[in-house]
Write a structure and sequence with these properties.
This protein has eleven helices and 21 strands. The chain is α+β, with helices and mostly antiparallel strands and about 425 residues long. The protein starts with 16 loop residues before the first helix and ends in a 5-residue tail after the last helix.
Length: about 425
């Protein structure tokens, strides 16, 4: 098997082109979902060349606060300076490349490498090298700021209250990148919402899924499965009236609530309604921002859905939820009203099958249903009998288009697949 590389075609991976051509996931070969070589190529030509979700603006609220994120081949951190500006740098010391900062921190006064104590200020400038004259005679004749050993800069920007990083210093403006899809997003104002936290220290939902990240995305944007896999868990939405499409590389999606739920939504909603959403615009907005961040914007919650590739067959999903800035008492009252609504006698929380609730298909939890389906699909990719049958023209149209966008982006950045 030949290594992937610039100028090499995907069919060079296998000696059996005929068998490869039969095993396709619509546009991409099965190897795109199973191969370490393809995964590595994605890290280089896709995740290292796009805006990557890093967190929420409140994660770096004060000077010295920082967060670090992996963006393809690059580990990058965002830090708020004493001038209250956000800056992004590659998370490596200029001496030997050691990682400078861990995942998250507060009130950092300076940035010091744990290996040899090279120190940088919050603007990324090298300000201290221990034993300079004794250990580094080639630096002693210069002032540190003249040595061109400041941190490598990256780009950071904000979109709808979310922080994004790009490995390049002067990346494309983020509003241009997301501009075409913006009018199709929900009317929610995330900056006015507060992050939901069930218990102290448990603000995020995290789940390691044994499936390729693209399978996770394709499940997310697959309209066809909503009325089937989730017939008992997401039937409060009118799937027949769904609207969706593409703007640039980004997918947009909207479907309204069913009539009965909408008529009693003030009582039936388990959480207080989001006040920034007009009554006539209530519904499910579920866009997918290329390449790996989804947003679910509903009547009572606004969520980020971050699919983080870990390996060819493994993905970490992190979900962060924001809700109306209401008191705990208001949440309790709303939940009590919701539990008494007759709407829930008909809609929601019914498993696909009856049985042990530990069975994901009997759990009444749509996330567990999705995880199960994705992992089973990943397993099937190893079978010599695997193939993709007939494609739903409307319901699965987004799946093929997403694969085309992945292929196009990678090719535009040197993959030649």
């Amino acid at each position: 098997m030949k290594r992937f590389g610039e100028g090499l075609l995907i069919n060079n991976m296998s000696r059996s082109m005929d068998s490869q051509q039969k095993k396709m996931m619509h546009v991409l070969p099965v190897e795109a979902y199973t191969s370490k070589e393809w995964f590595d190529l994605e890290m280089k030509t896709l995740f290292s060349t796009t805006w990557q979700f890093a967190g929420l603006v409140e994660d770096v609220a004060n000077p010295g606060d920082y967060i670090a994120v992996q963006a393809g081949l690059n580990n990058i951190f965002i830090v708020k300076g004493r001038d209250h500006r956000l800056r992004a740098f590659h998370n490596m010391c200029r001496h030997r490349g050691t990682q400078l900062l861990r995942a998250v921190g507060k009130n950092q006064k300076a940035i010091t490498c744990p290996y040899h104590d090279w120190t940088y200020d919050l603007e990324g400038k090298l300000i201290s090298v221990p034993k300079k004259e004794e250990e580094f005679p080639d630096l002693c004749s210069k002032k540190l700021h003249e040595c061109d050993l400041n941190l490598h800069e990256a780009s950071v920007d904000i979109f709808k209250g979310m922080l994004f990083v790009h490995p390049e210093k002067n990346a494309q403006n983020i509003l241009e990148f997301f501009g075409e899809v913006t009018p199709y997003l929900g009317p929610h104002i995330p900056e006015e919402l507060v992050e939901y936290q069930e218990k102290e220290g448990e603000a995020f939902y995290t789940k390691e899924i044994h499936a390729n990240w693209k399978i996770i995305v394709e499940n997310y944007i697959d309209h066809y499965h909503l009325a089937h896999l989730h017939e008992g868990t997401l039937n409060m939405y009118d799937h027949a009236k769904a609207e969706f499409g593409w703007k640039g590389p980004h997918y947009w999606f909207y479907e309204p609530l069913v009539t009965e739920y909408l008529a009693d939504v003030d009582n039936a909603s388990p959480q207080p309604l989001i006040s920034s959403v007009p009554r006539e615009k209530i519904g499910a907005y579920v866009p997918w921002l290329f390449p790996n961040i989804g947003i679910t914007e509903g009547e009572a919650a606004w969520n980020t859905f971050h699919a983080i590739p870990l390996a060819a067959d493994k993905t970490l999903v992190v979900i962060r939820s924001k809700m109306e800035n209401a008191s705990e008492w208001e949440f309790t009252k709303q939940y009590t009203r919701s539990s008494m609504s007759k709407v829930w006698l008909k809609y929601g929380n019914k498993g696909k099958y009856e049985g042990d609730p530990s069975d994901p298909m009997a759990s009444g939890d749509f996330m567990k249903e999705d995880v199960y389906a994705c992992e089973q699909q990943q397993k099937s990719l190893k079978s010599p009998m695997f193939s993709v049958g007939a494609r739903a023209k409307r319901g699965e149209y987004a799946v093929m288009r997403f694969q085309e966008e992945v292929k196009k982006w990678m090719n535009n950045h040197g993959a030649n697949i």
